[in-house]
Amino acid sequence: MTGNFIVERENRHSSDPFLLSVIVLLLGIGLTFLFSASYPNALRLNKAPEFFLLRQAVMAAAGFAGALFLMNIPIEVLKKLVFAVVLTSLLLSVIVLLAGRDIQGARRWIIIGGRSFQPSEVVKLALILYLADVFSKKEDSLDSFYSLSHPLVMVLLFSLLTFAQNDFSTAVFLILIGSAIFFIAGVKFRYFFTGFLASVPFLLILVFSREHRVKRLIAFLDPDKDPAGVGYQIIKAREALISGGFWGKGIGSGLKKMGTLPEAHSDFIFAVIGEEAGFIGILIIIILFAIFAARGYMISYRCTDRFCFYTGFGITTSILYQALMNMAVVSGAVPATGIPLPFFSHGGSSIMVTLLMCGILLNLSRSTKNERELPL
User: Fold this and answer.
1) How many domains, the chain?
2) Across residues 242-257, what is the average pLDDT?
3) Euclidean distance between CA atoms 220 and 234, whole angstroms
4) Which has the higher per-residue pLDDT, 134 or 218?
């Protein structure tokens, strides 16, 4: 059969090779651009040019090893691990509040052996697994507010613990991921409408309760009003994207990363990609993420087990949302957030958890419906 393979013969015993290829491509391209974006900062810190690359590579290797493990365990074992993952993420969220390190006014990191770890990254995976487990058992009782109260409380608890770390953007991101899983589970629209009306006043209070959030909003609305202050980062990112043109200046040849673009190797690495790879490079990255999302949703749809369906949907949505939000921030389409670009931004916790998620998604690709074919 041309262009297809029978799931019953192949996919039951092996993970989706097409999805694996896309993941490896994103990781490889991501590490390449990370080195290009980070070496100027490493030199400014009197470190070797590959300093940030090696740190990222170590965490990527750990994440890849974990992904191999998760890719090969039985789904029933994964279900049994849900409680442990949720409990661990809750404990880490409390520990970071009590003993975490303050960096730039935020307490988001736990220092272990000289390396920082961000518990909120684990929370993303824990929330997805928890909601998948709950909704796979409550599909027949979603009309009852009581049955929805437990998952709703858990979403709010994780979000509040993350918000307490002064990580507003990730707290909102958790609510978005939770809402997406609630929606795909078939929760009635009236609950979303009521929740939205109830949350708007609180969100406004939270936004205007901190000066740096107000400054981010001002920079988004009119960055040119304060080009040397709150609008500086957005303006420099925009200049980097524009200067790349269609073909880009070439990998390693960007100028904005040399000091004028803050966070060039982390939250704003997409601007470096735009300058060095141009429109064509950005297009390739977007296409790769689109293929990843399409494949992930296809795998989720073909899962026979509802836990697998919700888990695959949640993981795919989480990685896709992070990519879209980061690109939108760098492009000036939404206010600045601290959401990294998956596979690209420097951050050991982020790359490790992203690869763990990918390992689970590859595992789920073995559980697709036998009677259907998965196109290559």
Assistant:
1) 1
2) 90
3) 8
4) 134
Closest CA to 277 of 21, 37, 66: 37
Q: Cα separation of 11 and 279, whole Å?
A: 36
Check: CB of residue 131 under 8 Å from CB of residue 311. Answer: no
Tokens for 26?
A: 């994103």
Residues in the chain, overall count: 376
What lies within 8 Å, CB to CB, of 204 at 6+ separation is none
- Assign 3-class secondary structure to the chain: CCCEEECCCCCCCCCCHHHHHHHHHHHHHHHHHHHHHHHHHHHHCCCCCCHHHHHHHHHHHHHHHHHHHHHHCCHHHHHHHHHHHHHHHHHHHHHHHHHCEEECCEEEEEEECCEEECHHHHHHHHHHHHHHHHHHHCHHHCCCHHHHHHHHHHHHHHHHHHHCCCCHHHHHHHHHHHHHHHHHCCCCHHHHHHHHHHHHHHHHHHHHCCHHHHHHHHHHHCHHHCCCCCCHHHHHHHHHHHHCCCCCCCCCCCCHHHCCCCCCCCCCHHHHHHHHHHHHHHHHHHHHHHHHHHHHHHHHHCECCHHHHHHHHHHHHHHHHHHHHHHHHHHCCCCCCCCCCCCCCCCHHHHHHHHHHHHHHHHHHHHECCCCEEEC
The one-letter code for the residue type at 365 is: S
- What range does the domain containing 37 cover? 4-375
Tokens of 241: 């994207």
For residue 306, give both structure tokens: 């509802």
Lowest mean pLDDT among 16-25, 247-256, 362-371: 362-371
**How far apart, in whole angstroms, are the C-alpha atoms of residue 47 and residue 328?**
31
Residue 370, exposed/middle/buried by CB under 10 A (0-12, 13-18, 19+)?
middle
pLDDT grade for 372, boundaries at 50, 70 and 90: very low
The two beta strands, 106-112 and 115-117, are: antiparallel
Residue located via tokens 């998965």: 374
Question: Tens digit of pLDDT for each residue in 319-341?
Answer: 999 999 999 999 888 887 888 99
Buried b / exposed e over 268-285, threshold 16 CB at 10 Å, is: bbbbbbbbbbbeebbeeb
